[in-house]
Amino acid sequence: MNNDHLDPINSLNVPELADTTFAMDFLLRAKEGVRNIAVALTESASPDVRALLRNQLLQGIAMHQEITELMVSKKWFHPYELSEQYQLDQLSAKNTIMIGNMNLFPADMNRKGIFDRTPDEHK
């Protein structure tokens, strides 16, 4: 494993990893929102508030379904194929450990001599 966070090889597939991470976070937050609205609905006494919360609950459920369908279509989420989902989760854990082990703040930040000279240096 290359521990140099400035090495361009370490940026391969990062946009895809970011997309899957953001989508999963969005899915989990949508689920939390549905749960919180459902609790609030059971606690409210006003018919107007209950109607408002019921509408928000339906919108939250629809949003959760939309995110799930997007993730399934992109093969970022396998709710019906547990072995495939397990493999994705293992890969995610491996990548998280790899990033956590990277020395993101090395003592020596000097890059002099690694890159080609600038056009001003060619004069």
TrEMBL record:
<dbReference type="InterPro" id="IPR012851">
    <property type="entry name" value="Spore_coat_CotF-like"/>
</dbReference>
<protein>
    <submittedName>
        <fullName>Spore coat protein</fullName>
    </submittedName>
</protein>
<comment type="similarity">
    <text>Belongs to the CotF family.</text>
</comment>
<keyword id="KW-0167">Capsid protein</keyword>
<dbReference type="InterPro" id="IPR012347">
    <property type="entry name" value="Ferritin-like"/>
</dbReference>
<dbReference type="GO" id="GO:0030435">
    <property type="term" value="P:sporulation resulting in formation of a cellular spore"/>
</dbReference>
<keyword id="KW-0749">Sporulation</keyword>
<dbReference type="Pfam" id="PF07875">
    <property type="entry name" value="Coat_F"/>
</dbReference>
<keyword id="KW-0946">Virion</keyword>
